[in-house]
Model the fold of this input.
Amino acid sequence: MDNFTIKGSDGSITISIDEVFGYPTETCHWGGYDTRSRIDIHVGNYKVVGELYISTGDIFSFYQKLKNCHKNLNGEAYLESYENNLRADLTFDQQGHVKISGFYQEYHHAGNKLTFEIDSDQTYFNQTISELASIVDKYGDMTGIKDQ
Done:
């Protein structure tokens, strides 16, 4: 199973890809391949586990931004699902601190929404970048791997 974890001192977000649609020949219009994934969010004493549809293109885009922020110790990387039910903003400062904030809402028609904030620093992101690199190596960029 392909997965990656965004960690902090007081929480984590893990996305596990359970099913990839169209791989390797048919990409989706959001970029890359459409996936049915699972998200696990732990923040303090709060925990949510839910279903998430996200494209490998969304993951690729996040990977590119995260690598740049990590390298420069500055900037913002965000992960957003095409259904707009997940948004995670990672804001880096030049002292190596990272603020992870965002929300997850499994179903738009339900009123339940988890808003979260996790404190982190750059030392947590070497593993995340490595996990994302494995996913990108396997599924490619916004055009997938069909042309490679």
The beta strands are 2-8, 11-21, 34-43, 46-55, 75-80, 86-92, 97-104, 114-121. The first strand starts at residue 2 and ends at 8. The chain has one domain: 2-139.
